[in-house]
Amino acid sequence: MCGITGIFDTRGRSSIDRAVLTRMNEAQHHRGPDEGGLHVEPGVGLGHRRLSIIDLSTGQQPLYNEDGSVCVVYNGEIYNYLELIPELQALGHVFHTRSDTEVIVHAWEAWGEASVQRFRGMFAFALWDRNRETLFLARDRLGVKPLHYALLPDGTLLFGSELKSLLAHGGLRKDVDPLAVEEYFALGYVAEPRTIFMQARKLPPASTLLIKRGQAVGEPREYWDVNFTVDSRIDEAQAREELTERLKESIRLRLMSEVPLGAFLSGGVDSSAVVALMAGLSDDPVNTCSIAFTDPAFNESEFAKKVAARYNTNHYVDVVESEDFDLIDTLASLYDEPYADSSAIPTYRVCQLARRHVTVALSGDGGDESFGGYRRYRLHMMEEQMRSMLPHGIRRPVFGLLGRLYPKADWAPRFLRAKTTFEGMARTPVEAYFHSVSILRGPMRDKLFSDRFKREIAGYDAREVFERHAARAGTDDPLALIQYLDLKTYLVGDINTKVDKASMAHSLEVREPLMDHPLIEWLATLPSSFKLRGREGKYLLKKTMEPLLPEDVLYRPKMGFAVPLARWFRGPLKERVRDAMLGARLADTGWFDRAYLQHLVDAHQSGARDYSASLWTLLMFEAFLRNVLDGSPAKASGAQLASPVMP
What we know:
Helix content is about 40%, strand content about 15%. The protein is α/β, with parallel strands linked by helices and about 650 residues long. The protein folds into three domains: about 1-175 and about 190-220, Aminohydrolase, N-terminal nucleophile (Ntn) domain (Glutamine Phosphoribosylpyrophosphate, subunit 1, domain 1); about 225-560, Rossmann fold (3-Layer(aba) Sandwich); about 565-640, no CATH class. Strand 4 (about 65) and strand 5 form a beta hairpin. Helix 12 (about 375-385) packs across helix 19 (about 480-490). The protein is globular, with a radius of gyration of 24 Å.
């Protein structure tokens, strides 16, 4: 895997400061420690840090076409590049390397913007065509690889794999986008296309951005979307057979490597399925890496050992202590913007372990979204059955009133906790799903934010992210709708962000066979009953894997990749949490209601409520303020809240 960065004068041919470009490039040294390269000409500068995986001897970047007029810097893997080479050679293109990178420049010459539709893999790249005076940015369909960009007031366009490369330029202002803050406290991440900074944007998944010198920078153009038709008439036996072949093909493509390769093995269904199929495709034992926790409530390592023993893998295990909370500031600096998924801690550790043994690791990420594995899917579908009994025009006023009047009774037996059910019945399906995945739900955010902050966001609600995607989902199937929402939001903003940053921190390439876009497209045609059947999620995947995996791996309750936050915040992190919540850094922003912060801390630490997720979200925001906003290279005396800009 690699890191890319660059500077483009959209208005002319001003000279590019090579020292500045070098600084931007070196800010991402961890993404590619093997080699670095620059391309500089009037008005254009491209930078690349390389982690060598394929074509170790001749795959250096920037890479050029035959006459040097087209130049590319690229991060990722195009798995079907060997199929594209003869097609491009037949069109007259001459190849000088054996790398997938060179396919990009010739594909651009042959097919222009449509070239990205021919690529199968994970990628983010920037291509400069001198003859057309055009810069072309592109990102893969599922958003596995990141790409950020910012247009400065003088017409300079900055771009990079990570925000830290843009910040290293020195011209990007650290004005915080208040709408991004609202999204963060709802979702735990800043949703595409926003970043935490007003001037910067993320290029959305499955999008390109074409900029011609001398013309205004337009909006990204989407080149792909998943279409949930759920109309396939295939029977279950045929579906299991086809799924097996599709998974094998996806994994086989991702085994190409000239460096050591292995897999993550958590003991869950997805990673175990990947390892089982890898073992059948490999002549040598698979290298597998697992994390074990000293806290048994979070430890899946015994199930991982079962799978490793069954397939005779070279199995490596690291034990993570239950008090492994020293990464808070490291993670804040690593992620560049607020990020609140606490599983970033074990993910960081398993990447650290894997890199000691391999350079490439396959993961099971993406399986829950496409196969219907999240527990929240089952709960949402149960609510949907109830909502379908009454029109929304009746449900909203009646159950909305009941939800407001009924007391919140977390202490009571589950059958008496009706407040959440009443509230859910009053909502639309999209509102209900957004509510279910929110870390701090609407009423909590209303109490958390100060009056000043509420004026700044001018009524904006992060729910609009979901509403925007739902309007384009093109399906009225209730399960397909929330799968689509997760593919557009949670998978990209949370899962892929977490894995990219954690793996790149250790110069490890992670490949996701369950995110192969032809596989995603095919699964979207299958009836929802193949994904969620009764109370069983991932129904088809589990049935398909029954001959290959132990029953207790397939059918035990889902555990997740979590850490004991609730206990930390009442124990070893008690004072740190109190200091962060009630200290000067959060107070200086003027964005939060101090009395509510006091309530969150006191209620959690007394044991009256479990506010661990909310406190972690605030703790990571405070760490972002200290480590990124107040940090180099453009040190700020305090967080500056900028005026909101609507999407």
